[in-house]
Amino acid sequence: FFFFFSPSSSAPFPASPVPLPACTCTRRRRSGECRAFFILQDIRNTVGNIPMEWYQDYPHVGYDLDGKKIFKPIRNKDELDEFLDKMDNPDYWRTVRDKMTGADVRLSDEQVDLVHRLQRGQFGDINFKEYEPYIDFFSSETMIHPVTNRPQDKRSFIPSLIEKQKVGKLVHAIKMGWIKPRKPRDTTPQYYDLWAQEDPNAILGRHKMHVPAPKMRLPGHEESYNPPPEYLLSEEEKLAWEQQDPEDRKLSFLPQRFSCLRAVPAFSRFIHERFERCLDLYLCPRQRKMRVNVNPEDLIPKMPKPKDLQPFPTTQSLVYRGHTSLVRSISVSPTGQWLVSGSDDGTVRFWEIGTGRCMKTVDVGGAVKSVAWNPNPSICLVAVSVVLLNPALGDRLVVSATDQLVSSYEEPEEAREQPVQWAAPAGKEHDAGHRLHLAHPKAVRQVTWHSKGDYLACVTPDGGSHQQVLIHQVSKRRTQNPFRRSKGLVQCVSFHPTRPFFFVATQRHVRVYNLIKQELSKKLQANCKWISSMAVHPGGDNVICGSYDCRLTWFDLDLATKPYKVLRHHKKALRGVAYHKHYPLFASGSDDGSVIVCHGMVYNDLLQNPLIVPVKVLKGHAITHDLGVLDVTFHPSQPWVFSSGADGTVRLFT
């Protein structure tokens, strides 16, 4: 091993286990550019070319020639000391750590230049001439004497026997016809038929793909020089023909009459028509499209027959008469024995379903927009817009238990401010069945119960207010506003039948809220202009919405936020939609006076889509003031449907 000294500096390079190339040192020593001394240097670390990470967990880094351990230098610098050294030490950038000894080595200027040259891809020696003058060994001048005076070999002027044998074999092959001489090239141009190798029986054969040029229409009577009188245009027809666009005219010319053929002048549009004919020939597509012969009946989906989907309502059985104005809302008791209806005449009527007899009439003092019977069979309460009624029908024990539940309320010690005032009527109102009054700031458009029968949701549509939806708890007489700000004009709301979800329908969207997490779960796009009504499937995974633009949209909540199916069976606006609790049926009522009953089967298999089949159109309501059916609802246990209309009647279809 040796040290290499530069003439400009006496600083030695670090000792390296790899010697410098001898040729470089020898050349530099001959030229006198440097002084090189070959001395035996004691390499301190004798571990060899091994990864120094092996000594990472030991206090030493190797062994010297005597076999003694070379201990690591004490390095007690932390990151802060390292940062300060980096900021204060001007030689920090040229200080490197020697992995063999663990010591810090400061690079000299020559060593830094060497590193920079190597990084740029240059030679390590600064004096090495990369492009030295080239000395050509063979000069361009012709010399008299040869370069070498070597005598020629004997084989250079004696015929070769091996070549003689090869030539003989080639001659024999040519005689036998095994090797044919190359033919002279034919310089004449050659032409190829692209369709010469085409299969004539192919479907896409050229003769079968031939499209003839479009033929011109044969001239008719209107093009005659003496056409019949009925082909000549009057002055009004001429004026209308001139005002039309050229592409809208049936004839491209005006029929004229001449006395003889000699009097016919030259056609003024002759060149123009020839040009259009050339365009027709030039722009005619020369490709024949393969049409698939499909039977139109095969494109219609195979639907089951309605008789295979029975039972469903088909016949009008009863008509409940008594209201003198529009019957906007109806509801059926959970036992299926009683029916309640609310009308614009300010009365609420209770009917016995089986006989059609009006059992009770309650005057609430204003138009009734919505009624809802409590779905809990153990409670006999009916929500009528702003009043809770006990009709006192059915089981007396249930009626008395309901009155006891309402009267057992005790006011809390600290009264809380609520958006709605609760009041318990007395006197004649109590005797008429009034149990609780709820003073809303606006008119109530819809009321709906939770499936357990304790919570009641009311909708008071007001675009500028955040109190459009209010939820009441009857047992504690408490009212809460679930929304801080309005998301649009609320049309209707509904509770999920089994899970803590709340459906809110605005004009174009249906939002599904999680009542426990108090967050928006889904936002359904109805793809209609204005939602009018909504119903939730008893399973809870499907929703139908009716709209004023004659559409009924079915949503599959597990599938997507867009409608699974859009039905356009009605000709006018839809006013009400409803699901049956036990049968796979749903119905829709419209201003066209009809109720359409559809079969809607929802399968337990999530991979199978719901089956929707219209089965019956029920008619019977008379259209009054452009209004037809205003509400529909199903019987809780029988495949019967009730409908209320603008003609003041309620009809039962069984």
TrEMBL record:
It is found in: Nucleus, Nucleolus; Nucleus, Nucleoplasm. One of its GO terms (biological process) is maturation of LSU-rRNA from tricistronic rRNA transcript (SSU-rRNA, 5.8S rRNA, LSU-rRNA). Keywords: Nucleus, Repeat, Ribosome biogenesis, rRNA processing, WD repeat. The keyword rRNA processing applies. Residues 55-313 form the BOP1 N-terminal domain. Its main location: nucleus. It comes from the Eukaryota. WD repeats lie at residues 320-361, 622-654. The keyword Nucleus applies. GO terms for molecular function: ribonucleoprotein complex binding. InterPro entries: BOP1/Erb1, BOP1_N_dom, WD40/YVTN_repeat-like_dom_sf, WD40_repeat_CS, WD40_repeat_dom_sf, WD40_rpt. Component of the PeBoW complex, composed of BOP1, PES1 and WDR12. The complex is held together by BOP1, which interacts with PES1 via its N-terminal domain and with WDR12 via a high-affinity interaction between the seven-bladed beta-propeller domains of the 2 proteins. The NOP7 complex associates with the 66S pre-ribosome. The PeBoW complex associates with DDX27, BOP1 interacts directly with DDX27. This is Ribosome biogenesis protein BOP1.
